[in-house]
Specification:
The protein has helices spanning about 5-15, 20-100. By secondary structure, the protein is mostly helical. The radius of gyration is 40 Å and the shape is rod-shaped.
Amino acid sequence: MDGTRTMSEIQETFHTPLRILVPKLFKSRDDWKAKSHQRKAQLKSAKINIRDVSASRDKWRERTEQLQEQNEQLQQRLERAERERDTAHAAVTQLEASKKK
């Protein structure tokens, strides 16, 4: 059906009368177009959703990396403070021991 056939050729090919065939073909075409428009809308919606989710994921990844760096820095500060505390405690113990002698 490339549009080059004559009405007599079409009538020979199809046994169904044109008064019945034409509305069905129009309905089929309209259904196909509606389905196509619906799928295009779904595709556009999915692309927008993917864009937004990707942006959100990147934002959370960046925030997570920042918090991990901050956590590492705080861990280092804690270790340094514990070493200083242990050093100070040892110095205090040594001073107390030297006062008792």
